[in-house]
Amino acid sequence: MPPNSWYVTTPIYYVNAEPHLGHAYSTMAADVLARHHRQRGDDVFFLTGTDEHGEPIEVAAAREGITPQALADRNAAKFEALGPTIGVSNDFFIRTSDPRHEAMVAEIMQRVYDNGWVSKGKYEGWYCPRCADFKTEREVGPGNTCPIHEIVLDWVEEENWFFQLSKFQGRLEALYEERPDLVVPDFRRNEAVSFIKGGLEDVSLSRPTLKWGLPLPWDHTQRMYVWFDALLNYVTALTFAREGEDLSARYWPADLHVMAKDILKFHAVIWPALCMAAGLEPPRRMVIHGFLLMGEKKMSKSLGNVLDPFEVIERFGADALRFYLFREVSFGQDGSISTAGFEARYENELANDYGNLASRVLAMVDRYRSGTVPEAAVDATLAEDFEGTLERFRELLDRAELTQALELVWALVRRLNRFVEETQPWVLARDEADPERLDEVLYNLVEGLRVTTLMLVPYLPATAERLLSVLAEEDRALAELGSRPGGQSVERVPPLFPKIEA
Ligand code: MSP
Predict the structure, then answer these.
(1) Please, which of 189, 190, 204, 339 could form a disulfide with 160 given CB 3.0 to 4.6 Å?
(2) For the chain, first and last CA: distance in Å?
């Protein structure tokens, strides 16, 4: 059988400012799932990139007295550079100022127009220049403010082209009926469904005042509202990501769009309708996560409370950052993060629970068995606790339950630590009264370490690679306890998570 293709995306990020930890979070989440699917043998395509048109960029560039393109080039380079530093394994990085994207957007939007889903009209309402979003009445905060950016909204009255979203109400309702897991978690799906059932209005497709945007193919006096240009990246990228190759048939529809709740409406309502209008299949699924908060507030550049991911990594390393965020903040919910919380988890969980376990086990195999893993049987009590975990792990990641899946692995790591305490291999080694039991204990510990480390590959890619190489494990597929017979040579490791300087 050919491998199952699996296409995952992140939002494409605005280049009006530099990347912060919030952006890194979404990209790392998509990366965990991409790596997991590669381990399952899937043919994965993982896309991320930058959203470079629209008012937020126009305004920020004007403030600096530079062109939007110059600002886009500068910040896109920072977003692109962030990937490798946080262990992200994307297959392509799309920039919407890429002429190949622009040409495809024109082609697709012309199709939407030709299919009769566009009309002219007058827009009157509230607009947030930071979200680049026309707010419906329900979305306007007290004092006509944006609930996300806490700024006063602009009242806008202009002649626009409209995308006839209202005509897709029935089709969207049917889509959600048919596909109960189109949006996960459930409470986000319910939000999307109630937004649709509340009645859909047509949405502005163009803006006469916008300069930094793509011209409408059928009316060059108006420029495209950035969200249409942006959403289409998921489709256009496949047509030029590989020179001379069109990946669309292989990867579309996308298997998963990852994002935070701020852009739910665009993805869960407008995007499937736009796909239908363009004659494209809607995406298969999207997972909506919460916000990283600093104190009580969303981490965001405009609120000025951001952690710089480059600085965090400098201190703790990329793996520790990935681990901390998925462990600390229940994926799907909002959650506060802090340097103190980071230090505690680094110390207690990464350095002690996992790092020490690895060092101890490898040191004991070195000392008591000259570095050769004994061949022995699986310990019955340990086997009981490992039983069925791989299946549960896969199920959890199928639902993008990143925190619960990690908790499952951590329970095994803790179980292995208890196994060390219970069996006390150093006592067994003292007079070698029962060498077979010592063999068995060491074998089971190495197996446990191998099995859990394979599960940690998506979360701690660099650390897991290091440890798997020391464990002489070449395969990256998930494995059951006892699936390797022993007999391999292993080495000691220096601490995987060394003490951090204050
Ligand atoms: N350009 C649009 C998205 C277009 S997708 C076709 C956009 N860009 S953005 O730069 O504002 O990025 C928003 C996304 O960044 C969120 O949906 C989320 O994925 C991520 N995050 C930004 N700040 C975040 C937090 N504080 N916490 C969690 N995720 C955050 O919207």
Answers:
(1) 204
(2) 53
